[in-house]
Structure formats: C-alpha cells, structure tokens
C-alpha cells in the first residue's frame, strides 16, 4: 500500500558542515511536508541495525562508523509519490553521478559521505520511520 510518506536522514557530515538548514529548505521547496523531525546521535548498534541489509557489503563497517560519528537529523516526509520523488530530489548514491540540482550533487562529499538518506520503497519507508519515531512523535 502506498503511504505517500518517506523517511530521510541528514547524515553526520552534512549536519557537522552546517548544511542542515539548506538541505531542509530544498526538501520543503521540493514539495515535501515534514511530519516528524529530530536530531539524534545513533549508537554503533543502531547504525548497524538500520543498515543491516548491507551487512555483507565491503563498505558496511565504514558505513556504521560514519553514521554513528555524529548527530543525524531524522525526518518523516509526506508528498504524493514520496519515495520516488524524494529519490529524484536527492540524486544518485555517488555525487559524481548525481544530476545537477539534486541534494547529493550540491552537498555530498563522496559516495560514502553523501549528505542524505532516502528510503527505497514504501515498505522500507515504514520500517525506517518506525525505527526512529514513535507514533506520538508524528504529526497527523
Ligand atoms: N555506500 C558506500 N559505498 C558504496 C555504496 C554505498 O559507502 O559503494 C554507503 C552510502 O552512504 C550509501 C549507503 O551506503 O548512501 C547505503 O547504500 P545504498 O546502496 O542503499 O545507497 P542509497 O540508497 O543511500 O543511495
Ligand atoms: Mg539505500
């Protein structure tokens, strides 16, 4: 079932670089409504669990270290066709391949430190939102 919601994180290097506001502006200007938002420090265990699907990939250890290296900003976003439209707004995983005008093209520093996360399906958007937020933290 399409929920018209997606989940994002502004990743640690983008928060540390002071681009939280600029990225949030791009999200709002892209037509997304923020339904939940918080600044959060992930533990290694939490980062490892969030990215468990990548456990066998060579970059998993570095990804877990990176995602727990400083605070992230987690958000639940709402828009028609939210998952696909948000993936379009953020651009390709590797900023070298990301289209002009996308968040990763503008703010990612590498394929690993790529500024933002975006859910890849409605099912994962729901799972990832529930990982970070309780129901009472989400506005109606
Ligand atoms: N990643 C990495 N090296 C790679 C591929 C991915 O460090 O070769 C990191 C990067 O931070 C990416 C995350 O792992 O955002 C999750 O990878 P995925 O393939 O799901 O990319 P995404 O869905 O974030 O575009
Ligand atoms: Mg992914």
CATH topology: Alpha-Beta Plaits
Termini separation (Å)?
A: 18 Å
Q: What oligomerization state is this entry in? A: single chain
- Silhouette: globular
**If you compute it from the alpha carbons, what radius of gyration comes out, rounded to the nearest whole angstrom?**
14 Å
Main pleated-sheet profile: 4 strands, antiparallel
Mean pLDDT: 97
Tally of distinct domains: 1
Structural class: alpha+beta
Helix content percent band: 25-40%
Structure write-up:
It is a single chain. This protein is an alpha+beta fold and 140 residues long. The chain has one domain: Nucleoside diphosphate kinase-like domain (Alpha-Beta Plaits, 2-Layer Sandwich). Helices cover 39% and strands 17% of the residues. It has seven helices and four strands; from the N terminus they run βααβααβααβα. The protein has a four-stranded antiparallel β-sheet. The longest helix has 11 residues, at 122-132. It is globular. The relative contact order is 0.25. The mean pLDDT is 97. Uridine-5'-diphosphate binds next to loops.
């Amino acid at each position: 079932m399409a929920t018209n919601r997606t989940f994002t994180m502004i990743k640690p290097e983008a928060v540390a670089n002071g681009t939280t506001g600029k990225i949030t502006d791009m999200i709002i200007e892209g037509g997304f409504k923020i339904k939940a938002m918080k600044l959060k420090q992930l533990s290694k265990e939490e980062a490892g669990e969030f990215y468990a699907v990548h456990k066998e990939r060579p970059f998993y250890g570095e990804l877990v270290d990176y995602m727990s290296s400083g605070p992230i900003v987690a958000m639940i976003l709402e828009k028609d066709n939210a998952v696909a439209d948000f993936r379009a707004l953020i651009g390709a995983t590797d900023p070298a391949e990301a289209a002009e005008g996308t968040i990763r093209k503008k703010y990612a520093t590498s394929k690993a430190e790529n500024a933002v996360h975006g859910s890849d399906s409605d099912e994962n958007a729901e799972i990832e939102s529930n990982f970070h937020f309780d129901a009472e933290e989400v506005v109606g």
